[in-house]
């Protein structure tokens, strides 16, 4: 059959010796098997206790072992070389993918299509709307109904809500109700009268719009044109033109007129805070002040240059009026009747020393032209008097701050993010553009939370109220919880209006300047491919025209003239960072896009600040809204999730030297002979100490990186094997009736990240939290074999010390005695200028002793105060 048959006879029978002999190959296999088995058993005996421990207890330890495997959401650790490696990407990249124009437009249309002035029904509705956003995005499913989350300031519930932020283990939200004194408009009148008081020419104080802009038309008199916190009164007198009514303008007016007692002063908006225009007139004996919007300040975009008025074009509507507070902001912020303490419903109140004693009205360009007829030679109304009537209802009005917390690993270090919600009318730019950007930030943070992310530090999100009356919501909260802020808040990141024009501006504490710029440089320009967001600082509008006067350029560019060599301006006042920076020394930031002299006219605080104007002229497509959201979002992630806080102490120290150079120049200009030698030596010592501190921060960060790389390289090969063993043990655990959450499983989508997958910075933060306050058991972590816990603890401690010392520079400039004549402001390095309000004055006490007091003794005293306070800072930050 073709098969080869074996000859049975040819097979000789085996001997006993032959049967007992084992082939060499088989013996080798068996030997290798037992050797391998011995190795495996030995390895299991070594690592099994730790592996079993990690399964039968929580995932805390394993999370820490994975400290250096996951990506850090902080830019600082990104720079250490730990870029995206896993399928989910870094928190930073995920956060940047969430904000989008369609969502921002939708959010803006919620807030900017109806009036929501502070203390109104519409305002309360937006407070609740923002609360629901936080509740939805932060994943707060089981919580009381909204009306149960509205607390009276000063109540146990309100106190507990804020003071528990630094202890929170899960997100929660609430609304605080404060009770400041504010006012609302009643009868107002502006007319030209004869000597007997008879009306010769009346005016309409209502802004006019047709249905081309339906919101402006519908709500044109929903909030009458008036000044918040203005004095009521009925006065008449001759008119005098005060130009911008700056301190210098009033000085020139006195030289020209001798005195202005009994006059009504006509002031142009611009240059300084509107309240100080009223204050200047009051101090010189004026009986009233009118403030108007002058098309000369609109740059090239005017009717004169052929541009139609809004709503038919980009130029100013001649009936537009800028409302706003006339509080004396450079004296103190917040409720005028409770300076330095919170406005509870039953608070003891003062008369208020930061509000006018003479009436004022904001008026349109149309009405200003009519009033100027009394100053026009040959006009029928030349020399006639102007009558100003401003009746207001001043009373206690409730306001509502909405707040939400995202707990961090280091619970007692808090990053506060704030934007005010109240508008003068609809406020599409101010503040709803900022609210829309914050809406996108909250969505991004919510997305990260659903993925299992947790910040290193706690994040507190605040939607402030009554900012437009004088920073009231944030200030009252800041005064209410100053001790808690001092103990726990590491930074305050503010956003007011995110978009009203084409040019990016950035302001902040010198500690944060490099960080602010760095984050903007990491983002693309919102509308111009190939450029960065930071490059938008040089952007300008597209509307051309004849040359603009030097005076207008100078006034407009005041906001850009004080930037440091990094490109970030110092913070004065004018928004909700004020109480944090000026009272507690919290490093703060602010920014957004503002209008240039070549942009469509921004109708600030007018009925024409509408959603239509925003979508048609300010930010078509809402790309700038999204860019601001991403920029602030990166700042939030950087401060909240970086082990080393992004504070540049060296930059601050050298900025302080530039402040000294400025006052030296002022002293020379005013012929004031001051000895600055001791102050200069103190600043030099601050520079030396700051450089050493930053070097220590860099070394600690480098050591952390080395440890991370070493541990990762040594242990990453075991990770897959350990996961498999954990999976098997988990099934055994389930079989025994012990619940296992199987957190070793790989997530199936970006919304189901496993519990043990923590960011590098988060895991490091867990250690920092354990070492810092002892709430967790450090010893249990030490039980893991071969983990260099002692070495890591030393590095983490160095980082903690460096962070604290860097933050102490800003806090160190706080003086309990405050600034002369306006003691509410306590920051001796920077404050709103006494006659600026918005703009910052560096070394304010010393600068103003030279420029306003012109007093050598006072100036030398202020120089001594600075010397002592800087010496204390040096002592604090020295290593």
TrEMBL record:
Domain Transferrin receptor-like dimerisation: 793-877
Gene3D superfamilies, A to Z: 3.50.30.30, Transferrin receptor-like, dimerisation domain, Zn peptidases
Positions of transmembrane segments: 27-56
Family: Belongs to the peptidase M28 family. M28B subfamily.
Molecular function in Gene Ontology: carboxypeptidase activity
PANTHER family: N-ACETYLATED-ALPHA-LINKED ACIDIC DIPEPTIDASE, VACUOLAR PROTEIN SORTING-ASSOCIATED PROTEIN 70
Region forming the signal peptide: none
Boundaries of every Peptidase M28 domain copy: 401-603
Record keywords: Membrane, Transmembrane, Transmembrane helix
Protein name: Zn-dependent exopeptidase
KW Cytoplasm (keyword) present: no
UniProt keyword Transmembrane helix present: yes
Domain annotation PA: ranges: 235-311
